[in-house]
Amino acid sequence: MKRLVPLALVAGLSFSLAACGEEAEPCSLKDNGDGTVTVRCDGQSVVVPGGMTGSDCTLVRAEDGSGIITCAEGTVIRIDPDGRPILPGKGTIFGSAQYLGLTDHAGILVRAVGTPYSTTTDAQGQYELTDLPAGLYSLSFEGRGRVPARLENLPAVGGIYLAPPVTLRLGMQISTEGLNWLIVAESPRKDTFLVTEGPGAARLAIWDIERKLGTVLSATATEPGYASDGRYVVFLEDRSRDGKVVLWDVDARHAETIFDGASQATFLEDGRTVLVHAESLVLVDVETKEAVVIPESRPAPVEAWTAPDGKTVAWARSDGQVAFWDVEKRRAIHLSIFVSPVGPAGSPVVFTPDGHDALIVGRDPSGSNVLFHQDLRGGVGKTLASSESPIQTLLPVTDRYAAFQAGIDGTVSTLLWVRAGSEPRLLGTDLFAFPALGDTALLLWRLDPEGPDLSLYDVATGTKTPLASQVRAVQPSPDGRTVLVETDEGDAGWKLVGLPGREHVPVGGISDFEWSKDGAWLRVTANGSTKLIRASTGRVIDLGTVESRGFTARGLFFLVREEEDGFFKTFLGLWDLDREEADILGLYRGDGTFHASNTGRTVFLSESTGLWKVVPRTGARELIDAELAPDPLVIRDGFLLYGTSRGAWMITSFK
Length: 655
Hints:
The protein is an all-beta fold and 655 residues long. The chain contains no helices and 62 strands. Strands 28, 29, 30, 31, 32, 33, 34 and 35 form an 8-stranded antiparallel β-sheet that branches. It has a 7-stranded antiparallel β-sheet with strand order 3-2-1-4-5-6-7, with no helix packed on it.
């Protein structure tokens, strides 16, 4: 049993001020409510242990800046030239620190900050720092994978002080706002992320994931964004249209205003150029701070589009004509094409992924609707199709080709522009087109109850390979090498077709399906049974009556119910994609929601007992928060955010 000795300041200390000659200065006292008192004299504050709020105190200084604080009830405090109290003797700080959700609390490092004194907790979480020179201490608490904690102003004077208990959590609070009010953007380097609180102009902070350090960048920021290399952040400071464009250097932790009077600012893909919308379009180099005004880009606001490689900016001039600006060569290409108010996916200008070509849905000077192609590497532009109506619609656009639809002779025809070709090819009418086999082929689907209405079109040769007839639905894999087809041909149902021309795998009637992100696996559910199909080989694995919880990079998580001792229990399982084997990971309480990290190495369960972290390899559970976390969780590669009634919290101790 620890004996706790009341702390008191030593009264009646002998101190000579014969050489001083300074007059006594009155002091004010404030009880801090934690067993300490702040004594403020001549603008200087001293925090000391004890309780003397009702006393009148005065300070007398010596020539070297040290001094004596004398109080009416007899307390005397000696301070050094830096204003720190000089207390006699030694003391001990005793307390407990624990891991939230665990029973073994051994190994938590407890340090007296700024001193060589440290210790670790035992299995019960108790610690003791002994033989501390008398004074006030800050203690830090560190545990592997946990957010560090700290206690301030703990006294050690001639006895044992019982410190408040400490609990180390996996989550660190980053905001008092609920998760649904936060907008999160992760750095391309995945070392930091931005958090914007609230819609519109709002509080903007950047968080260092490894250091768990947050920095507030602005109280009224709009449209923050990272450079493509993650070195900089740009945002607009101000609620008005005449805002300041602020650049934050992530490594140097330095903010700088690079433009005044803007309504919008975004990075180009090159990572060093900011496109500013002001009275004109302006390009600002973040290294040299040079600003280049794009000519004929007034008045504001100007509609603009940027190429994926960041080397070209397209904009609609005041007369509606499209122009292109070469960022490196600082020259413009002007077209006699007017942008259409209705374009593909809301944008009348679309670039190929490599940024070498642009396609414009618009009108020519005669008023005809056109699809125009512009070679951005110095080539001459040309009209690919022209019609009275309807307005052309772009389908897939790759580095090699673009499919589009245009009204020709009263019908909607699908055409194909190939970069190396001369004229667009007519593919047919009323077609749906899907990229396949990289950008070497197209899947063409036409609703035709009599003919082979799903075919594979080879872009190089122009040949078509029939794949299926009487097709009702088409679901290509993400890699474009396999396609799931629903057909009325023969036995009604679904089948998996490998490209180009591999054997068909009958799937039957299904109620649900899901592709893995790489397209290598397909999960289908029918009549309560779940099957996995290897796309490249057609191999079928029957997992039985399980409930799928989604693909991750590691595998497919699922839930399965099994009878044990006359009771049904739910277990968490994982189909490992590499080993092609299933593992049962442990009991699943089943009264909450399930979330897997992007890598699949960690699972998060939100249950009535709280939010838990589960390691799939072992099934070990660790409590994150005793309060049930709402959905959705924000899961990225290096961090997770969750919300409670107390605000938003960050976890970084998982992969």
